[in-house]
Specification:
302 residues; alpha/beta; D-Maltodextrin-Binding Protein, domain 2; 2 domains; six-stranded mixed β-sheet; three-stranded antiparallel β-sheet; 14 helices; 21% strand
């Protein structure tokens, strides 16, 4: 009798666990301080799990396969999905500044001083390549005036540290990790350069949270709830970054000091619905790649 009762209880537990798994929203986000708003927001959403990743290709594949509901990644990555007929929608962006031009030995005021040099970029058509190209052209230079070298941040940061690379646009936390090296110089902030050229103090949307159209149609209430919690998290981070980030360094596998420095150097600005659409359209228009009418389907408006 006890055996039968144990089996029945175990069956009920397994059923409840399976029901929870099916009703839990899984968000994949980069294992960097940029994911802090998502991590903080998820603590207020018991039906949400944030999984931090380091392998972008694997995360992209899981999203495209449908194994995860939300993918937080670079804006240009989501745009590439959309352009390749994936029914993807962007629901928010909460990072508008996290990249710096980090150089070896000397501080450079602009790209003109680096003409003829190699520029190390994480991958072809990445968000960083997109904006770096814009900055270079804004100085009256040609993209061909530089040699593009594609390496992941970890590899290019190591080359820079050892003086084998001259200039690398790096996102946090790599800037904060490298800055204590004597020969490493932070030449300028991409956010500051954007504001200087455009006058837009909101910066430019660098990341996005992406979902499939079918999932969006069934989860409108959740999307609004998630955006609301992220918005509150961004306000909390901007008001007191030390308090907001406290105790979360272990999740990101970095020290508390690096997390604090990286958080302070990152510009968090929450965008969603119409404001997100307007800022993304403005960004692409500004860099010379205006969006066509088809992109109306790319935005989640409410």
């Amino acid at each position: 009798m006890r055996t039968v009762r144990f089996i029945l209880i175990s069956f009920v537990v397994l059923l409840s666990m399976n029901f929870y798994a099916k009703n839990k929203t899984v968000i994949y986000a980069p294992s960097t301080p940029t994911s802090l708003p998502l991590i903080i927001a998820s603590l207020k959403l018991p039906d949400t799990e944030v999984v931090l990743f380091t392998n972008h290709s694997q995360a992209n594949a899981l999203f495209l396969k449908g194994d995860i509901q939300i993918l937080s990644t670079g804006l240009s990555v989501g745009m590439n999905f959309f352009e390749n007929k994936v029914p993807v929608i962007v629901i928010n962006s909460y990072i508008s500044g996290l990249t710096y031009l980090v150089t070896y030995g000397s501080v450079y005021k602009n790209f003109s001083e680096l003409k003829g040099s190699e520029i190390y970029l994480p991958f072809q058509n990445s968000p960083i390549e997109e904006i770096t190209r814009f900055f270079i052209l804004s100085e009256g230079l040609k993209w061909e005036d530089f040699k593009s070298v594609y390496l992941q941040f970890q590899s290019s940061a190591e080359l820079l540290k050892n003086g084998k690379a001259k200039a690398v646009p790096l996102a946090e936390p790599f800037v904060s990790i490298l800055e204590k090296n004597e020969n490493i110089k932070i030449s300028f902030s991409y956010y500051d350069r954007w504001v200087e050229i455009t006058g837009n103090k909101k910066g430019y949307p660098q990341t996005g949270s992406f979902i499939k159209k079918e999932w969006a149609e069934k989860n409108s209430a959740y999307i609004k709830k998630l955006n609301n919690e992220i918005k509150k998290a961004v306000i909390e981070i901007n008001k007191n970054p030390e308090k907001a980030a406290s105790g979360l360094s272990g999740k990101l596998n970095i020290t508390e000091e690096i997390l604090m420095n990286a958080t302070k150097r990152t510009v968090f600005y929450m965008l969603y619905s119409d404001e997100l659409k307007n800022e993304i359209e403005n960004y692409y228009k500004t860099i010379g790649n205006p969006l066509n009418e088809n992109y109306k389907k790319f935005f989640y408006i409410y």
